Structures are given as structure tokens and as C-alpha cells.
Amino acid sequence: MQKFCLGNDQDMNDRFAFAARFWGDSAVVCRAAKDRPGPVVEQQFGHFATWTQASAFAAKLNEGLGIDSFEARDIVTSSFLWADCVVRSAEALEAAHNYKTVRCDTLAAQGGFLLMQLALTLTFCRSARLSQRRKSHHTLLVAENVLRRARQFLASYDGHSPELEQIASQAAELDATLQDLSFLCCHDGWNTLEPAAA
Fold first, then answer.
1. Residue from 54, 18, 157 nearest 100 by CA
2. What pTM value is reported for the model?
3. What stretches of 132-198 show up as alpha helix (H) in DSSP?
4. What is d(CA 177, CA 120) in angstroms, rounded to the nearest whole number?
5. Which of 3, 13, 44, 89 is most enclosed, with most CB atoms within 10 A?
């Protein structure tokens, strides 16, 4: 994340200069302080019909302050650069916030889908236990894949949330059910399956 750009510890008596800026169909005079975000529109001077008129007025103000055009340009440029830095810092904070929001939304969507998959797989495994049919072999393979996806999902998110705890609980229940079904398969003459890796 980009660090905040803050002005140095100078007091508010910093050098400042005036400059002309477009404002819609007219122009205004702005005040810019060196190494401070800005410039700021000086409403007390009103609107000018053209940028040239506003620029001439700003030049007279600067002349009254003893500031030549080169120094005025330096002060105004500095002010614009500091304003850009502040805007970029705010954008970086917003981007970080948006990333966190998207990550939370993604966790919720993926977690909800995985919870439904785990519940459905548990139901199929319990049905396979009762049916004792050869199709149960396929159910066990699917269940192992779902369990593997649940473990990968849990490993990819750190922290604690009710959704993660619920997924972990259902994954543990599915693992126990798979262990039990694998035992039944071995003793009832089904194809032997390796228990799901921990």
C-alpha cells in the first residue's frame, strides 16, 4: 500500500502564489502553497471571462507578494504534486478496502457452495451405506474429491469465521463417514479405497 504523503513541518506562513485555472466556461484565480496539497480556488476574486484575464490578475497578485513568474510556477507545481500524492493515497486505501470486500464476498460465495456440496455428499454417502451396491464405489470417489476441495479451501483462508468453522465441521464429518464406508467396502467385498488423506 502506498504511504501517505504529508507536508513537512513548516508553519502556515509558507510561500504561496496565485495561478489561473479553468472553471467550466470561465476562469478563476487559485492560491497554492508550496509543498501543500492544492491549489484552492479563491472565491473572493470571482470568475473571469477568460483564462488570460484570470492569469493577468494572478500575476499582479504574485507581483505584489514579490514572487516572479518562475517562483510562482514552482510553488503551483509543488502544490499540484502534493495534491496528486494525496489523491493517490486515498485511491490506494480505497483499492485495499475494495480488495478486502471482494475477498469476503468470494469467501461467502465459495463457502456457501462448498457447504452445499458437503451436505449433498454426506447424504449420498449415507445412502451408499444403506444400499450396499457397486455404485457406491463411484460415490466414495466423488466424496473424496469433495473432501479434498474442502481441505484446500480451508487451507487457502486464514482466520476464523462461522462459515469456515461450519465447513471444517462438515469436512470432519465427511471424513469420518468416508473412513466408515471404506471399512465397509473392504469387509463386504467392494473395491478397496484408500481413506481420504488427512
1. 157
2. 0.44
3. 136-156, 162-187
4. 13
5. 89
Say which residue the cell 508550496 belongs to: 34
C-alpha cell at 67: 514572487
Architecture of domain 95-187: Up-down Bundle (1.20)
Rounded CA separation 185/129 (Å): 9
pLDDT in tens, the chain (198 residues): 333 344 444 444 578 999 998 988 999 999 999 888 888 889 899 999 999 999 999 999 999 999 998 899 899 888 888 888 888 888 888 877 777 777 777 777 888 888 888 888 888 877 776 665 555 677 778 888 888 988 888 888 777 778 888 888 889 988 888 887 765 555 554 444 444 444
Q: Quick check: 137 and 185 in contact, CB under 8 A?
A: yes
Sequence-distant (6+) residues with CB within 8 A of 180 are 129
Q: Which of 178, 154, 148 is nearest to 166 (CA)?
A: 154
